[in-house]
Prior knowledge:
Two copies of one chain form a homodimer.
Chain A: H1 3-10, H2 14-21, H3 29-42, H4 48-55, E1 60-65, H5 74-86, E2 90-95, H6 100-112, E3 117-120, H7 127-135, E4 140-143, E5 152-158, H8 159-172, E6 178-182, H9 188-203, E7 211-213, H10 218-230, E8 237-240, H11 243-255, E9 265-270, E10 283-286, H12 289-305, E11 314-318, E12 320-322, H13 331-335
Helix pairs in contact in A: 1-2, 1-3, 2-3, 5-12, 8-9, 10-11
Chain A binds a DNA duplex through helix 2 and helix 4.
Amino acid sequence: xxxxEIARRAKVSTATVSRVIxxxxxxxxxxxxxxxxxxxxxxxxxxxxARALVLGRSxxxxxxxxxxxxxxxxxxxxxxENLAVENNYEILLxxxxxxxxxxxxxxxxxxxxxxxxxxxxxxxxxESLIDYLRGRKVPLVFVDVGxxxxxxxxxxxxxxxxxxxxxxxxAAMRHxxxxxxxxxxxLKSAIARCDAFKTAMDEIGLSPDLIVIGDxxxxxxxxxxxxxxxxxxxxxxxxxxxxxxxxxxxxEAYEQNVRIPENLSVVGFDDIxxxxxxxxxxxxxxxxxxxxxxxxxxALLNEVDQPQAQQRHTYELVTSLVLRRSTALAAASRSSxxxxxxxxxxxxxxxxx
Amino acid sequence: xxxxEIARRAKVSTATVSRVIxxxxxxxxxxxxxxxxxxxxxxxxxxxxARALVLGRSxxxxxxxxxxxxxxxxxxxxxxENLAVENNYEILLxxxxxxxxxxxxxxxxxxxxxxxxxxxxxxxxxESLIDYLRGRKVPLVFVDVGxxxxxxxxxxxxxxxxxxxxxxxxAAMRHxxxxxxxxxxxLKSAIARCDAFKTAMDEIGLSPDLIVIGDxxxxxxxxxxxxxxxxxxxxxxxxxxxxxxxxxxxxEAYEQNVRIPENLSVVGFDDIxxxxxxxxxxxxxxxxxxxxxxxxxxALLNEVDQPQAQQRHTYELVTSLVLRRSTALAAASRSSxxxxxxxxxxxxxxxxx
DNA sequence: CGCGATCCAGCAAACGTTTTCGCGATTTGC
DNA sequence: GCAAATCGCGAAAACGTTTGCTGGATCGCG
Lengths: 353, 353
């Protein structure tokens, strides 16, 4: 069933049907009504591919993430999809699973499908692919790693803000031996977080020497804390490069009978959903996935709607500390009579079935 | 840049270019080479929409889930996407967020995009929409709720198998007061789980009278356990309709100073990733998301490849218990001298950064 | 009442492919 | 060595839309 069938039955031309469907106002109300009637009767839906072919726009955005099962991403995908629905866009989802080959094929497929834009929300990126994509003139949005050229938007993450808050929060709780568990050194984002930690510590006159390298996974957190705990004078607080690391720390602390937050304060980074379900709930630096997705989508939309406009191509996402229950006054201070104080924030809504 | 441009530069017809690209073997190797050369030089990619238009097949599958942020789904999406990539399909993702309106628009959009098939992996479904979709002759796959007609595949979940294992595991650990926390009563899947529990209890001569209704979210689990704990003779083991509920139970138990597994055994259902990161790791009935996605994809592929074939349209997914560390011998038994025994299973690989 | 302006519906071209069909050239068979 | 069969390429017709252009009808105005 196509537009011609409708035209035939409504006794008008296909041009008129097309105009009716696209709500062109200049068509006779009489005809409009007749056409709609037939359309509804037959349950006709326009063929988007044919439409895209002539329009040159597909109303599809590509969304590339690292790994859907990584707890950082579902919220991003959900928000992105919500916005897509609102704006009558479709979304083509792919994950790279950290495989450059896969990334390449993902990009190729997106181009073949003639997407109107691609949001590359993965951390870590092949330089070659960036160039490649740019040659294609597809609007792009990156986080942290994009080049500064027209048609490419960049979301810069302000890591320092949240990490500074975390460090100062810990310092205020009388912690002076604050450790940092970093992420894989090949990730720009991990390095940026580590740098932010150093800066924040320097700012308040503490030396950032307790740094150990993890892998952004639970195992790395466990191993790292194992090392730290074996030190002659172990840290009283640990700041982690991401939440999974922090969860590893908590797990290992549990095994070692170190109580959180009484004997150890732990702070994560990212604020994934999971952090609300740990015991105790994890204090963490929030890098709002919701905001990130929103910014990315808006950027793409801008790029598509006014491709020529001389707009700003760089956006910023600020991080900030959210307090839950994994931090408290340092043990030394508490033994000198101070009362334990844990600050609790309101929790977000829970997960549905 | 289109196929004609290539044809022009290679001094052949568009037909030949098309044949080369689609690897039709009857074309002269000489020409083939020449065409490929031009294609590579120009970085030409065929326009999938034009292709889909004439082929009548889009090589796109729709995937409808309830909510991407629900921990049950990311693994499904990931597996589905992996299979899509392997088979040269693209996937259009939508979530219904439990809104029938949204579900309807999702379906409409999929049809407009002329998807080759839709996997509806949501729990709970509008009857009206099923009929609607069937009228469209799009291959479909459902879980649990689909009608038994050609072109529609159904994945039936065998809830009883896993739940029976769980009940018998608990009984073997000397638990006799085993409670069940059910899910929302409007979900077919929740009711099926509850029924399975009753059956399994009956089978071993225990009466399934400790049943309280939750909401498949952490809050519901907390509330339900609160009730159960206040009973004059509270249960020593709790089986939950899903993992989030179990996590709620563990959280509330923690608040109430009930130790797991020493004073209370807890079993979940689903086996979402999260269960490995709780303390202690949760024993749960696995309903493999990986398998589910795999079956769904295969079913769709079958339907598309041999639409006329008289194949079976119903598939089965079996559930089974996976032991972790949230269950142990009942307290009464332990006080009579038996040693505490916790069984630990191997854990899956952790989450990447 | 006549003429130009205005309006609106339809014709047909275009979008970028695939594929049928026909045709000339080459190979095969006797 | 010639007819017949085979082979490989190209012309052109689809696929289902949108839209610029055209022309007939209606309208307004003098």
